[in-house]
Design goal:
By secondary structure, the chain is mainly alpha-helical. The protein has one domain. Helix content is about 65%, strand content about 10%. It has nine helices and five strands. The protein has helices at about 5-25, 30, 35-45, 95-105, 115-145, 145-150, 155-185, 185-195, 200; strands at about 50-55, 60-65, 70, 75, 85-90. A three-stranded antiparallel beta sheet has the order 1-2-5, with helices on one face. The chain has a two-stranded antiparallel ribbon with strand order 3-4. A hairpin with a 2-residue loop joins strand 1 (about 50-55) and strand 2. Helix 3 (about 35-45) crosses helix 5, helix 4 packs antiparallel against helix 5 (about 115-145) and helix 5 (about 115-145) runs antiparallel to helix 7. The two termini are about 20 Å apart.
């Protein structure tokens, strides 16, 4: 393995990551907007009649449900009057894969780094969508609770699947997927660093 290109790459990641993280944070309302739009449409298919709307307020995801509390405090659907159950979620906890991917792409030498970055952002979209949908479903399942589960006819296995999806979408995918995308789009650079991997990519 050639040490100098590897060292330059690692140094580049360390330099670019704070910059991409800062840009990602201050532009959250823009890069999260298409994910929120798609998530709202998908959730209306997956969990019909559960959402009133899903919107962004800066970098906070605001969820208004079709549930509320009756006079005795029991959660019911549809809500009584205009008093609906709402939640504020933080989508930044699972969308940090974007600045990580950008730092990896920008630190990789080559003329195609910007094109690879564009492809990487597009390939990352399904992961961000899965994570946001899983987060909202977890909130509906466990914070709204039994009323949502009854409305959607969720079994215990369905509840467990939503909990697992939330864990995967929050803890696992945001860290792994950027690395997988980076490897897939930069095979030539990786084989220059580690020629023994050429046989693996050739399969």
């Amino acid at each position: 393995m050639s040490q100098k290109p590897l060292h330059r790459f690692m140094l580049g990641v360390l330099i670019f990551f704070p910059l991409t993280f800062f840009i990602w944070y201050v532009t959250a309302a823009f890069h999260l907007a298409p994910v929120t739009l798609l998530a709202g449409k998908l959730l209306n298919v997956i969990a019909p009649d559960a959402l009133m709307w899903l919107k962004l307020d800066g970098h906070t995801l605001v969820l208004a449900t079709n549930f509320g509390r009756d006079a005795s405090g029991v959660v019911v659907s549809p809500p009584v009057g205009e008093d609906v159950l709402g939640f504020h979620l933080n989508p930044l906890i699972y969308s940090y894969s974007l600045p990580l991917l950008a730092a990896l792409m920008l630190a990789t030498p080559g003329k195609e780094r910007w094109m690879n970055l564009l492809w990487g952002v597009l390939l990352l979209l399904p992961t961000e969508l899965f994570s946001m949908v899983s987060s909202v479903l977890k909130t509906l399942t466990f914070d709204v609770g039994a009323a949502f589960q009854a409305q959607q006819g969720l079994s215990q296995s369905g509840v467990d699947a939503i909990a697992l999806g939330y864990q995967v979408g929050t803890l696992l995918l945001p860290m792994i997927v950027p690395l997988v995308i980076w490897v897939g789009l930069n095979r030539d650079f990786i084989t220059r660093l580690a020629p023994q991997l050429e046989r693996v990519f050739a399969r």
